[in-house]
Amino acid sequence: MDGIVSPAHQPRISVVTPSYNQARFLEACLRSVLGQKYQNLEYIVIDGGSTDGSVEIIKNFERDLAYWVSEPDAGHYDGLNKGFRRATGDILAWLNSDDMYTPWAFAVVADIFERLPEVQWLSTLYPLFWNEADAATHCTQLPGFDRRAVLGRGMGVQQESTFWRRSLWERAGGALDASFKLAGDLDLWARFWEHAELYGVAVPLGGIRRHGGQRHVRHFDDYMAEAAVIAGRYGLRCSRRAPAPMLSKLRSVMAAAVPRRLRPAICRVGFYRSGRVVQQRTRDGVWNVRRVFFP
User: Fold this and answer.
1) β-strand partners of 69
2) Within 10 A of 67 (CB to CB), how many other CB atoms are there?
3) Which residues lie closer than 8 Å to 126 by C-beta, 6 or more apart?
4) Could you tell me the residue ranges of all domains in the chain?
5) For 78-121, what is each residue's pLDDT tens digit?
6) What's the CA gap between 281 and 21, in Å, rounded?
């Protein structure tokens, strides 16, 4: 492989940032997108009529924006839909105004989508968490993505690190369900999963900022209630309870003892979960896909 895809062949990436009175973190968010130096970027900012100085910050960056507006809307997902209706990119994503991407995110994402046409949507296996001073403070490791596990827990896919092809977006309805106030991303993932498997990549792509003011933190019970509705649409139950530590450890030990050749069959009875992971070979830099199995 010749390395990261050349600028002449870069797919267009459209990113939408919805914002409302987030002046405290907005500039860092904008810089994390525009600082990628990705030539084929379409960046759209939809402000819901902020009164805290956000508009002045946006104006400082407007020459690098494809479109921006500041006006009242009907909520978070209504603002996102407004932005995505203007998006023309081959690859789509959104970044909330208090979150940030890693500096290499677009280069990695573009390279994978360009070289692996089977990948329809992609998220990180190493989700980051930022603090209020823009420093990365924590990184978790995920083994892979399993539809039943994500919908059954109501979480597990970091929205800030998820990208998808326009064709998948259109097949899944081409809009977020604005009837949800908090779990619209989970609903979108569920619809994506009706058409394509989620691939994980072993590279951090972005992170959520922990500052105590996030909507899903302040209204966690409401979020879980919406997640339960979404899971129920697909015949699943959503539970906020994590498995007991000893039970999880026992399950992992038992799963590790199963021969690899038997794991696909055991997946079908629910003992194992499976997902597809994209990794880059160190010897030649080629992206390759493998199926992983995890308890």
Assistant:
1) 46
2) 15
3) 139, 140, 141, 142, 202, 203, 204
4) 9-241, 245-295
5) 999 999 999 999 999 999 999 999 999 999 999 999 999 999 99
6) 43
Q: Which two tokens stand for residue 193?
A: 């999963």
Q: Convert the pLDDT of each residue in 129-160 to its tens digit.
A: 999 999 999 999 999 999 999 999 998 999 99
pLDDT tens for each residue of 250-262: 555 555 566 666 6
Distance of CA 115 to the CA centre of its chain: 20
- Rounded Cα distance between 182 and 170, Å, is 22
Long-range contacts of 221-229 (CB under 8 A, 24+ apart): 222/181, 222/182, 223/154, 223/182, 223/183, 224/154, 226/180, 226/181, 226/182, 226/183, 226/186, 227/151, 227/154, 227/155, 227/183, 227/186, 228/154
CATH no. for 9-241: 3.90.550.10
The pLDDT value given to residue 254: 56
- Give the pair of three-digit tokens for residue 83: 């932005």
